[in-house]
């Protein structure tokens, strides 16, 4: 069982990262290198979070074994005895043999750092480039990242000069390595506290508000109004870009040297625009370089980049609009069924996807009503209380983890109590829940934030390559300081506990931060206290109010702009609902008509075919006899029936003239 736990978690985390990437990325349309790089970045970060509790339990066992097998005379003060010499140490079920964890952490850490500081920024520029060749894209990526890499060299040079000027240090490779790690962790910790302060408040509050179905419905109406504006803007932007593509396609003929670039741009356009441009092509004309002015390859590369961005944005808004409609219809159904006397959940629209028969058997309308209208709100409330309790514990521990006598950090108290009895199952579960909650608070904020349209993680395969790579960069930069912060909260880091004990394998890879005392004794200890101020600001929605004042509409219950957008979104949802109802009514009429007259039409068609066969055989022997009246009679019957079926399609007339009462609408028809 020594390596089974490690192997199981390695495989499990890989499929977890693959599942999340499949939800946000598009394996069919996005470049394979983008998928592989993002998957590797997510996988390594999730792997660190899942493997670190095993490192903690293994370290505690090694400390016990060292304390039992050594006496104070033999230890020479190198390690502190943590247990009596006669106490027996029990090997944990997930024990990892010596020598494996240091190699494992070294490979994982430096691979993630190579991804986040070198490879992923380069691939971001490569993915956004509009070049038509690999060489052109690489050249553009190198030019865009020249300032980026120059900033790294400047920061590293500043740290190097500080160590060189200080006479207490001798420049060695280990110290230079520690300086680089300290610089990366300092930047990551700065961003980590900002995201953590938001997630510690927003995650419990979002689950508490999830129990308020009326609140969720109003917020959905608000999102619908904003998304419709973005959707209209994306459609208008796509039309403008396609008009430019059409002009370029008409000006550059088939034998022009840049025609291959134009064909590459046309392949990225939607299908309907490709067909429309293909009908207007006059490729029989030769180009005349003296008479016309043609765009350069650089301008075509810029247009290619704009086409990729506009098409991706248009597709994303279309999919998000359909998802938001389903969510709004679902919340409206819940609001209607809450006052149902029959206690059976009734849907306004039937699901378009076929449901599993097993789910239909157990998840009956009655069970669905009790779950959706009665149990689910209470489940969200209980979960919100549990998450809020965890958040309070984290905030308290972040402010007191530097105190060792007495130990005020609650996470350190829990781990030390379990360490006395060597309850490894409890130690691993406590460590896993702690670091998992911290990771959820940080990573969920990464998935929620949106920087205009440049960075946006959209589910249902709608995230572009740039945003996927940027998320991989953030994960790789946030995970190492997150783990160091966790080890500090549990006093497993010797820098915090001030004990000369055996460190964890992860801490030994990071090196001793004593090389930079102002970071180890100052920034790492006191900066996490800022999380209290950030939690207070998030609780009172100060960031939301500031964005609202700057003109970025945010959902606020006491704002007049929010009320106007809610009313607008409600009207949009009502129109879409009536449109879908008319579509379903038309489909039901056609289905009933086919069920009623389908057999008669089949018999009519068979008789028509039989008559045509008789007429064709009769015409071979009597070619001069007129047979047009039989054919016209049968053909007229078939045409009349087809026209009658087409008339059954409901006409889409003005929505304002439609009565919402289904009884009155049926009587009117």
From TrEMBL:
Entry keyword Cell membrane: no
Cell compartment(s), UniProt: Membrane
Keyword Coiled coil included in the entry's annotation: yes
Family matches, as Pfam families: LMBR1
Residue ranges with Basic and acidic residues bias: 582-617, 635-644
Keywords, ordered alphabetically: Coiled coil, Membrane, Transmembrane, Transmembrane helix
GO term, biological process aspect, one: adrenergic receptor signaling pathway
Residue span of region Disordered: 576-669
Residues in coiled coil: 224-251
Membrane topology summary: Multi-pass membrane protein
Segments crossing the lipid bilayer: 6-21, 33-52, 103-126, 146-165, 177-201, 378-396, 425-446, 466-489, 523-542
Domain of life: Eukaryota
Annotated Acidic residues bias: 658-669
Compositionally biased region (Polar residues): 618-634
GO cellular component, one term: membrane
Family: Belongs to the LIMR family.
Protein known as: LMBD2 protein
Primary gene name: Lmbrd2
């Amino acid at each position: 069982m020594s390596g089974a736990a490690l192997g199981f978690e390695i495989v499990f985390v890989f499929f977890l990262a693959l599942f999340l990437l499949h939800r946000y990325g598009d394996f069919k349309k996005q470049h394979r290198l983008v998928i592989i790089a993002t998957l590797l970045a997510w996988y390594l970060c999730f792997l660190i979070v899942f493997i670190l509790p095993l490192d903690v339990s293994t370290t505690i066992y090694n400390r016990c074994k060292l304390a039992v097998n050594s006496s104070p005379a033999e230890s020479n003060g190198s390690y502190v005895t943590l247990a009596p010499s006669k106490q027996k140490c029990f090997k944990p079920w997930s024990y990892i043999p010596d020598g494996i964890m240091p190699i494992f952490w070294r490979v994982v850490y430096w691979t993630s750092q190579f991804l986040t500081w070198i490879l992923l920024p380069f691939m971001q520029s490569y993915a956004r480039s509009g070049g038509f060749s690999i060489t052109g894209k690489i050249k553009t990526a190198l030019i865009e990242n020249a300032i980026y890499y120059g900033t790294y060299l400047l920061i590293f040079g500043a740290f190097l000069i500080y160590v060189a000027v200080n006479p207490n240090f001798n420049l060695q490779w280990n110290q230079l390595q520690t300086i680089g790690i300290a610089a990366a962790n300092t930047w990551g910790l700065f961003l980590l506290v900002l995201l953590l302060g938001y997630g510690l408040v927003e995650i419990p509050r979002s689950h508490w508000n999830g129990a308020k179905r009326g609140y969720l419905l109003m917020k959905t109406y608000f999102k619908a109004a904003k998304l419709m504006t973005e959707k209209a803007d994306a459609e208008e932007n796509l039309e403008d870009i396609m008009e430019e593509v059409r002009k370029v396609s008409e000006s550059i003929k088939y034998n022009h040297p840049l025609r291959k670039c134009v064909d590459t741009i046309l392949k990225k356009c939607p299908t309907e625009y490709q067909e429309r441009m293909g009908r207007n092509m006059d490729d029989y004309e030769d180009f005349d370089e003296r008479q016309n002015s043609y765009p350069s390859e650089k301008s075509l590369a810029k247009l290619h980049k704009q086409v990729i961005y506009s098409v991706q944005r248009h597709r994303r808004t279309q999919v998000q609009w359909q998802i938001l409609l389903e969510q709004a219809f679902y919340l409206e159904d819940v609001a209607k069924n809450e006052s149902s006397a029959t206690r059976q959940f009734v849907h306004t629209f039937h699901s378009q996807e076929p449901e599993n028969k097993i789910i239909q058997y157990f998840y009956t309308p009655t069970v669905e009503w009790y779950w959706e209208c009665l149990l689910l709100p209470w489940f969200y409330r209980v979960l919100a209380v549990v998450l809020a309790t965890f958040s309070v514990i984290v905030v308290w521990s972040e402010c007191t983890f530097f105190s060792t006598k007495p130990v005020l950090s609650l996470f350190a108290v829990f781990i030390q109590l379990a360490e006395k009895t060597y309850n490894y199952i409890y130690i691993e579960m406590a460590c896993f829940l702690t670091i998992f909650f911290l990771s959820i608070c940080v990573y969920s904020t990464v998935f929620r934030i949106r920087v205009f349209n440049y960075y946006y993680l959209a589910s249902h395969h709608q995230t572009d390559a740039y945003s996927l790579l940027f998320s991989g960069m953030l994960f790789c930069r946030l995970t190492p300081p997150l783990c160091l912060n966790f080890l500090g909260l549990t006093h497993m880091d010797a820098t915090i506990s001030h004990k000369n004990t055996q460190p964890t394998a992860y801490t030994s890879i990071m090196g001793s931060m004593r090389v930079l005392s102002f970071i180890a004794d100052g920034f790492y200890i006191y900066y996490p206290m800022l999380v209290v101020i950030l939690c207070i600001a998030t609780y009172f929605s100060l960031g939301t109010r500031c964005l609202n004042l700057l003109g970025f509409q945010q959902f606020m219950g006491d704002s007049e702009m929010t009320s106007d957008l809610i009313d607008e979104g409600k009207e949009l949802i009502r129109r879409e609902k009536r449109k879908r109802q008319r579509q379903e009514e038309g489909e039901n009429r056609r289905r009933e008509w086919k069920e009623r007259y389908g057999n008669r039409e089949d018999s009519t068609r068979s008789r028509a075919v039989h008559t045509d066969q008789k007429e064709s055989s009769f015409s071979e022997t009597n070619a001069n006899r007129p047979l047009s009246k039989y054919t016209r009679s049968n053909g007229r019957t078939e045409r009349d029936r087809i026209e009658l079926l087409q008339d059954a399609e409901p006409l889409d007339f003005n929505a304002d003239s439609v009565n919402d009462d289904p009884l009155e609408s049926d009587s009117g028809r």
